[in-house]
Amino acid sequence: MTAQIEIPRWDHPVRAADLPFDPERLRWVLGRVQKWQPYVDGSLLDDVATVLDNYTPSEDEIDDNAMRLRGHLMRLVNLAVTAKVVEQDEQVAQLVERARTFRAEELPGDHRKAVGHVRRLAWTLNELLERLVENQCLKEAA
């Protein structure tokens, strides 16, 4: 035999939801969330290793390497600024400034100079990653 129980009714008035944004602003936020790319340290470390390896990237590879490293660098810079590590660690502040300078520079037309530029990007990226791990802003890769 199944027992019958009485379900209590909700007698309290409920006010209408207050949306934090108008519909246009909500569409903008949705677009930003859909474009968001999470930090992926595996690809970052692979890209750094590719550039800093004994192998010299070809002219065809150098543009792609520079673009990926700049993307990683800006993600870490944004992370450092958002987490306010820049204000707490002078080395991070210097690395962020260096990263912004490198990112603003054009890739040199000469292949040797371009390789040097990309390797400086990779070293800066690697140093910034290490400082963020030391500041417990990121976890070390397992």
Largest sheet: none
Write the element-wise H/E pattern from the N-terminal end onward. HHHHHH
Calculate Rg over CA atoms.
24 Å
Q: What portion of residues belong to β-strands?
A: under 5%
Number of strands: 0
List the uncertain runs.
Answer: none
The tally of helices reads: 6
- The percentage helix is 55-70%
Using the alpha-carbon principal axes, give the shape.
Answer: elongated
Report the end-to-end length measured between terminal Cα atoms.
57 Å
Broad structural category: mainly alpha
Q: What is the typical, i.e. mean, pLDDT? A: 84
Structure report:
- 65% of the residues lie in helices and 0% in strands.
- The protein has 142 residues and is mainly alpha-helical.
- It has helices spanning 23-35, 41-52, 59-82, 85-88, 90-104, 111-134.
- The longest helix is centred in the middle third of the chain and has 24 residues, at 59-82.
- Helix 2 (41-52) packs across helix 6, helix 3 (59-82) runs antiparallel to helix 5 and helix 5 (90-104) runs antiparallel to helix 6.
- It is elongated.
- The model has no long low-confidence stretch (mean pLDDT 84).
Secondary-structure blueprint of this entry?
Elements: H1 23-35, H2 41-52, H3 59-82, H4 85-88, H5 90-104, H6 111-134
Helix pairs in contact: 2-3, 2-6, 3-5, 3-6, 5-6
